[in-house]
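4.2 Preliminary Data

To establish feasibility before requesting continued support, the project team ran the inverse folding procedure on a target of 316 residues. The structure was first converted into the token representation described in Section 3, and no sequence information of any kind was made available to the design step. The complete token record follows.
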């Protein structure tokens, strides 16, 4: 008999941790499978990232030097997503909101249609084990790109994507530059997310949530510097999809034991626990729960509460 999630944490039963249903609401398709799966496919080993990278810039240097040279063809990027879905199923993930970068369309002769056909077939293949929900990923630099912005609007109009996300270097665009796109996503009933407060502060989180009408924030941990902003997020039920290992490795949090997720939780902000880029950070959702428990951040009961709430919030 499988033991409960609470007992699995206390007894460090990794199989039982994996068996418990979970969600992953913050996962980028390009780097979504574990590095070892890509190594097996390529037949070579890939240098692991340094334990600490210098913010987003440091991660991009690693990704461009080590991973990207292997990810420049359609077959491999399709393999990565397919392998990620299998990883997620093995880890007990039942809802996977996969962020598909708009630049992915360039890998297909028929552009966005090719992306949609691949992901639709994959979702059909693995249903009902996992609910694979396509998310439209917009890098901030796309806001000033004369080809990518019209493509992003076209992607929204296709009705395929269930949510939208914005990421990459904060300085590449102010949120105002994508206001129209987000208004359109909201009118279409899509869930609106954006990366903010990963390295920046609380006011930036509040301003972006208000301006873009965000339902959820990717990371958002900078909100912890302001009790007022945390209360505001809590009152408005704005959930933060947090990725603890990513935050530590990118120097957004000093270490797991001092991760701001505890302060956010204590101030009533809804949080979920997610992977971000498993190819880089090398942790599954179950690993992230286990790490938080072992670092003494949450009790087993609190982690089970977070897990159950995330399942209830994403139920269709
Ligand atoms: Zn992210």
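Position-by-position output of the design step:
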């Amino acid at each position: 008999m499988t033991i409960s999630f609470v007992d699995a944490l206390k007894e460090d039963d990794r199989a039982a941790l994996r068996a418990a249903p979970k969600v992953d609401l913050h996962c980028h398709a390009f780097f979504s499978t574990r590095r070892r799966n890509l190594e097996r496919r390529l037949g070579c080993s890939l240098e692991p990232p340094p334990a600490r990278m210098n913010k987003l810039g440091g991660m991009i240097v690693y990704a461009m030097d080590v991973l990207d040279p292997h990810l420049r063809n359609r077959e491999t990027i399709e393999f990565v997503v397919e392998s990620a879905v299998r990883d997620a199923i093995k880890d007990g993930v039942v809802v996977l909101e996969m962020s598909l970068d708009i630049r992915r369309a360039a890998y297909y002769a028929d552009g966005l249609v090719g992306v949609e056909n691949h992901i639709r077939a994959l979702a059909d293949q693995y249903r009902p084990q996992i609910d694979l929900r396509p998310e439209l990923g917009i890098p901030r630099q796309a806001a000033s790109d004369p080809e990518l912005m019209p493509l992003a609007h076209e992607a929204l109009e296709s009705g395929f994507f269930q949510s939208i996300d914005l990421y990459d270097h904060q300085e590449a665009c102010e949120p105002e530059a994508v206001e129209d796109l987000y208004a359109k996503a909201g009118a279409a009933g899509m869930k609106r997310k954006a990366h903010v407060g990963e390295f920046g502060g609380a006011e930036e989180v509040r301003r972006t949530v208000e301006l873009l009408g965000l339902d959820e924030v990717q990371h958002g941990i900078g909100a912890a510097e302001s009790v007022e902003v945390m209360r505001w997020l809590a009152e408005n039920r704005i959930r933060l999809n947090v990725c603890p290992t990513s935050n530590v490795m990118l120097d957004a949090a000093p270490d797991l034991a001092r991760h701001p997720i505890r302060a956010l939780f204590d101030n009533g902000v809804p949080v979920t626990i997610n992977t971000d880029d498993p190819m880089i950070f090398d942790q599954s959702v179950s690993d992230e729960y286990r790490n938080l428990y072992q670092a003494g951040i949450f009790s087993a009961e609190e982690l089970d509460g977070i897990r159950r709430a995330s399942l209830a919030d994403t139920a269709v």
